[in-house]
Amino acid sequence: MPWIDACATDDIDAEDLIRFDHGGKTYAIYRSPDDAFFCTDGLCTHEEVHLEDGLVMEYEIECPKHNATFDYRTGEAMRAPACVNLNTYKTKVEGDRVLIEV
Q: What keywords is this UniProt entry annotated with (predicted)?
């Protein structure tokens, strides 16, 4: 699987996310409170609303439409109405760049 340069580390504040589109697919890249980076599918599994406008709290993302929550480290659906987990993708930091494996 190729590593894709997605963004600069400074592009994402702690406890926040950015949208990243690549190859016809959309992703969400998160920065945790402890400065680790994570990546999931960018669309909620409930109604395919983009998570970029959602609220990040600690290690969870809340969907902006129906308030479903996911643990962005594992993709696990934590609160209804979502019951399908998000796909997650490996991330790594090289210098000041965040790369994802797609």
A: 2Fe-2S, Dioxygenase, Iron, Iron-sulfur, Metal-binding, Oxidoreductase
pTM: 0.94
- Give the model's pLDDT for residue 1: 73
Domain boundaries, the chain: 3-101
In sequence order, what E strands does 1-102 have?
3-8, 16-22, 25-31, 37-41, 55-57, 60-62, 69-71, 77-79, 88-89, 91-94, 97-101
Distance separating alpha carbons of residues 10 and 74, to the nearest angstrom: 23
**What are the tens digits of pLDDT across the range 27-85?**
999 999 999 999 999 999 998 899 999 999 999 999 999 999 999 999 999 999 999 99
- The string of DSSP codes covering 80-91 is TT--SPPPEE-E
